[in-house]
Every structure is written in C-alpha cells, then in structure tokens.
C-alpha cells in the first residue's frame, strides 16, 4: 500500500479522533480559563497562606511534565482511594496544567494596565467591579490575547499525551489504525497534518481577533 492511500484510508478514523482532540482542548480551556483567572487574582491577594499555596501550585505544574501529571491523576490517585476514569483524568490534568500557565499571562496582563487608569476610573465614580469590567479587563484582554491563544494551540498538541491512558483522541486513533494495517508512516503523517491544520486555523482566528481588538472605534 502506498503512503497516500494509507493516509486516505486512515482519514475516517483520524477525523473522529480529531473531534475528540478538539473537544478535549475546548473543555480543558473552558475549565482552565476561569481557574487561571482566580489563581491570578489569588496570587495578588493580601493573605500570605493563599499566595503561598497558589505559588506552589503554579511552580509545581510548570516544573513537572504534563505526562507525569496525567500519570499522577490516573495511576496515582487510586492509591489514595480516588479513582478517575480516563476521560476525567485527561480533562482534569489538561485543565490544571493550562490554568497554571495562563494564570501567569493573566496576572501579567492585569498588572500591565496602569494604576493611573484604575484611579481615574474610581474618581469617576466606578466601583471596583465596574473598574475591573469596563477598564482593566478590556485592556488586559488585548495585551494577553496572543499568549492565551498560544496556550490553546499548545493545548491541542498536548492532548496527544492522554493517549497513554487509552483515550482515543487523534494520536491514539492513528495508533489503532497502525495496529490493524501495520503501515505506520501514512497514519502518523496524516495525524501530524491534522494537528498542523487545526493549529493553523486557530492561528488565523487569533490574527483576526487581534485585528478586531486593536481596531480603533468610531470617531
């Protein structure tokens, strides 16, 4: 069987796996983004124990491989009496991982909004929540959008690691095809091209969002 034909034959299975990959990434992003925002705010909280715990969480996640984190949740927790299925373990590991990285981006973006703008908003009668919503967050979003979108693109690729706990995402789908056909190059190449296509599409979305956020309003 030639390489092109093996790629074509593998496509139906790979596209099903790609759908699972996207669902995993989107699910982890939806769970991780609110957690990242809370962590970013908590690391600036006036309570030292909270700051220390959150700093430890971010340091641990950023200092250990994602694969090890997946193993800890899926294989390690049963030793403590907590058993998670592969789907829950995968989503939890991805969410906790991306939240730690995004919290750093969010914190830096919030800090980049000048204190003078906050004080000006308060002098105009805006409450703290209104200042955050109408003044700080829109500017922080423009600042942090590239890094946040890069996190999502990275998350698409990181989902391949959940294949080690038998989640049938894109990479695992390619492995199943290879186990049946004994033709590795075509399915792996097709999977790589699908990852590249998804990442490229997200890159286009990122560029469009950046242009829209930086577009000047009406005079």
From TrEMBL:
Lineage of the species this protein comes from: Bacteria, Thermotogati, Deinococcota, Deinococci, Deinococcales
UniProt-annotated location(s): Cell membrane
Keywords from the named record: Amino-acid transport, Cell membrane, Membrane, Transmembrane, Transmembrane helix, Transport
Record-annotated membrane-spanning stretches: 20-41, 53-77, 89-110, 185-205
Organism of derivation: Deinococcus maricopensis (strain DSM 21211 / LMG 22137 / NRRL B-23946 / LB-34)
Listed SUPFAM superfamilies: MetI-like
Protein name in the entry: Polar amino acid ABC transporter, inner membrane subunit
CDD domains hit by this protein: TM_PBP2
First-listed, main subcellular location of the protein, grouped into a coarse class: membrane
Record InterPro entries: AA_ABC_transptr_permease_3TM (IPR010065), ArtM/GltK/GlnP/TcyL/YhdX-like (IPR043429), MetI-like (IPR000515), MetI-like_sf (IPR035906)
Xref: PANTHER family: L-CYSTINE TRANSPORT SYSTEM PERMEASE PROTEIN TCYL, MEMBRANE COMPONENT OF AMINO ACID ABC TRANSPORTER
Keyword set includes Transferase: no
Annotated GO CC locations: ATP-binding cassette (ABC) transporter complex
Family: Belongs to the binding-protein-dependent transport system permease family.
Topology within the bilayer: Multi-pass membrane protein
NCBIfam families per the UniProt record, alphabetical: HEQRo_perm_3TM
Domain ABC transmembrane type-1: from-to ranges: 14-206
GO BP annotation list: amino acid transport
Pfam families hit by this protein: BPD_transp_1
